[in-house]
Amino acid sequence: MIEKAEAIVLKTLNHGDTSKIITLYSKEVGRLKLIAKGVRSPKSKAAGLFQPTRHLQVIYYSKANSELQLFKSGELVNGFFGLEEDFDRLTLAQVIVELIDRSIEDKESHPLLFQLLADSLARLSTPDTSAAEVYWFFHLHLLRELGFRPHVGHCSVCNEPLSTGGSLGVTSSHLECVKCHQPRQDSIFVSQAVLSAIQSILSNSWDKVDKPELNARDRRSFWNFLWRFTFYHIEPTRRMRSLKVLQQLYS
Questions:
Q1: Rounded to 5 degrees, what are φ and ψ at 122?
Q2: Which class in CATH covers the domain with range 83-250?
Q3: Can you tell me the distance from the alpha carbon of 160 to that of 154, in angstroms, rounded to the nearest whole number?
Q4: Which helix (H) or strand (E) holds 91?
Q5: Going along the chain, which residue ranges are E strands?
Q6: Architecture of domain 2-78
Q7: What's this model's pTM, rounded to 2 decimal places?
Q8: How far apart are CA 63 and CA 51, in angstroms?
Q9: Beta strands in 45-162 (DSSP E)
Q10: Hey, is 183 helix, strand or coil?
């Protein structure tokens, strides 16, 4: 059966002498794996389509009960070429697609999540946006769509408002106030300014988010909170290769 899908390339793997196996995230069926035969041949018209982050329309032959479908043809919807002009933005885009790849379930359609991915890559490829803020918005809304929305308003122990910030330990995803938290070497303190920024991002669309004004320490704790929280809930993200480059940029 011939099928059509709108999809974003997550990763590729060379197969044989001239073919590729492409993993995409599609609006219609979620994760989609295609084998594109002969695509690495110099004569292939599809050779440039399959870079990670490319937004495509693909036509493929679908076989029931098979994890690998056969690519027929495709066309570019958006190449997000602005990413290639800025190393930081390209790095964040690579983190985004790898995070999606390690977070989603196979063959589970989620149109809102697909749109979040496409919109975030488009914003990231625009030079007049804050790359970090685009990424924070994507990451937090991804967690929300997956059912892991961070609760940052109250202490998880005494339920008092986190008016002076909260702390997170390595074995928990719940914030605790200064009175309830038992400090450890691996504790992360998250200031009230960061918690307010997280709440604003989670509660609003991109156009309505109050852009956070955070100092260098707060920005580092924002990054640390995001990944500590994500590692706790989505274990496969601990093995992300792109994180090594991201940590060099934002440590």
A1: -65, -45
A2: mainly alpha
A3: 5
A4: helix 87-103
A5: 2-15, 19-26, 30-36, 55-61, 69-78, 166-168, 188-190
A6: Beta Barrel (2.40)
A7: 0.93
A8: 25
A9: 55-61, 69-78
A10: coil
